[in-house]
Design goal:
Length: about 280
């Protein structure tokens, strides 16, 4: 054995297969590289010698290498690992998948909350970067051991100039399925979340939420219609107040303490802008 081969074997230690995290075309392993824990993703034996799948894993590395998001597992390298062959190297994610939490009865309300916030953030980032990916499933959602931070794995195998309406609709559908299953195992979850899951999983894409933004508004228990109605009501109140102040029945300032209509208009405009800004945040 050459010195280079010996160095390579010493670099990689404690390689262990993680069957529950395997993907359709990939086996997933954990290992230490120079003593640091990482995860490895390599083609299953049936696909290793197929040029089509070799090109697929190389393209996935190219697509994912530049992604940077706190709720997506980051890729570090692409190299040969003894006994495994060519591997995508990612950060180690030590924790439990959403599937494992559901199956072992360890699901807590905080996991539901992070599905509704952190998972949506990750999907929004993926769509804004036009990433085509495998369906999001409970098996590909990991919660880290110490702080329970959500991490999405199996993200991205192609990047396009833009995503189609069908791509966006599929993301909404997959999210709805994940949310529905999470709700099944979270007693006392708000009723509106069940309604959101039902709409996300509607048979016709036209009946689902049409964007991540619309979905996010619904999850925040708000809607554009409610916002517009609130703003209109506020403006009507301000207009009525202005009309009253300028009418014969409005209050009259003491001599020498006059206030112009322009000043009143300025105060009302400022109040209106402040209110609208607060409602839009």
């Amino acid at each position: 054995m050459s010195k280079d081969e010996q160095a390579t074997q010493q670099k990689w230690t404690e390689i262990e297969h993680l069957p529950e995290w395997d993907e359709e075309y990939y086996d997933v392993y954990t290992a230490k590289k120079h003593g640091k824990w990482l995860m490895l993703k390599t083609l299953k034996p049936a696909y290793k010698d197929d040029p089509r799948f070799q090109a697929m894993i190389e393209k996935e590395f190219d697509v994912r290498y530049n992604l940077a998001h706190p709720h997506i597992v980051m890729i570090n390298d692409f190299e040969d690992v003894p006994t495994l062959g060519r591997c995508i190297i990612t950060d180690d994610v030590y924790g439990l998948s959403l599937r494992k939490l559901i199956d072992t009865g360890k699901l807590e309300p905080m996991h539901l909350d992070k599905v509704c916030t952190q998972l949506v953030d990750a999907l929004d980032y993926i769509q804004r970067n036009h990433i085509v990916h495998f369906p999001v499933r409970p098996e590909t959602i990991i919660f880290t051991e110490n702080i329970g931070n959500l991490k999405l794995i199996d993200v991205g195998f192609d990047q396009r100039e833009s995503l189609t309406a069908a791509d966006a609709a599929d993301d909404i559908l997959c999210f709805g399925k994940v949310l529905a299953e999470t709700l099944e195992h979270t007693p006392g979850a708000p009723a509106y979340l069940h309604r959101i899951a039902e709409r996300c999983t509607a048979a016709s894409p036209a009946d689902r939420y049409q964007s991540i933004h619309e979905l996010r508004m619904a999850l925040a228990h708000r809607s554009n219609n409610r916002l517009y109605i609130a703003i209109i009501i506020f403006l009507l109140v301000m207009v009525c107040l202005l009309a009253w102040l300028q009418s014969p029945w409005g209050p009259r300032p003491e001599r020498g303490a006059g206030i112009s209509a322009a000043t009143v208009d300025t105060h009302i405009t400022t109040a209106t802008q402040t209110y609208v800004s607060s409602q839009c945040q």
